[in-house]
Design brief:
- It is built from 5 helices and no strands.
- The chain is mainly α.
- Helix 1 (19-29) packs across helix 2, helix 2 (31-57) runs antiparallel to helix 5 (99-126) and helix 3 (61-77) runs antiparallel to helix 4.
- 26% of the residues are buried.
């Protein structure tokens, strides 16, 4: 009897952005300064995602937790609430020694971060 067919999952994440926080950021700083803050935060998120994945590959779960907390802070700064929530899940799973759950939540964090980068840059490029 042949094995059952393998189902390949292709999850699509919905990105939630705290528009009130983003609007306040732009109102307080002005467009140019707020754009710079967002740009730097996105660059920081990209670098931290690379670090957290490297720390995970090295089985440095204490460092995974620390980097997840840093990702949460950066994401919250620019209104990426779903990214912050996913980073919190990574932190919790890594802290509880749940290796399979850590992998799953880390992949979710990666998908959300990639989506945020794509969506925010697309919005920025489309803005007048």
């Amino acid at each position: 009897m042949p094995p059952p067919p393998v189902t390949r999952l292709a999850p699509v994440e919905t990105l939630r952005i705290d528009s009130d926080l983003v609007d306040a950021l732009y109102a307080d700083l002005g467009k140019e300064a707020a754009d710079l803050v967002v740009c730097r935060a996105l660059e920081d998120l990209a670098n931290r995602m690379n670090r957290i994945e490297a720390e995970h590959r090295a089985c440095a779960f204490d460092l995974v937790q620390k980097e997840a907390r840093r990702i949460m802070a950066v994401a919250q700064q620019i209104g990426l609430t779903e990214v912050a929530r996913a980073a919190s899940a990574v932190r919790d799973c890594a802290g509880n020694g749940q290796t399979i759950a850590t992998v799953a939540t880390l992949w979710r964090l990666r998908r959300l971060t990639d989506r945020a980068m794509t969506d925010i840059w697309a919005d920025r490029d489309a803005a007048p």
